[in-house]
Amino acid sequence: MNALVLHGAVSMLIAAASLAAYDHWVVRPALRVGIVDVGEVYRQKEAEFTLILTKASSDEDRQRAMALARRFAQRLPAALDELPRDCGCLVVLKSAVAGATPRTFDLTAHLKQKVEERPDRPATLKGEAP
Description:
With about 130 residues, the protein is mostly helical. About 65% of the residues lie in helices and about 10% in strands.
């Protein structure tokens, strides 16, 4: 009888540990949603480029502004692709979210940082080592 109780207790302990692990590594990460306001990032860069172009006094300044715009256009899609890996979550546009939840967090600042980063210094999320 003792062996039966012991086997039952071990089976329940294994089942509980398996369910806890599944919840921790599968269910909870799927419930995390990062939101990003791409329009805000575009508006900020557009204002920056406009300011550079309006103050440009030479052809070299205008070429530098165009190079910055090209770099931004190339870096933004790559940065958007990297966001889900960085946060381990689903990333959606801010305009697609009707209301924030405790498991929803804004990644717009992180996207701005990733777009601005230099290739030799990768951006990190808060709490991560650089």
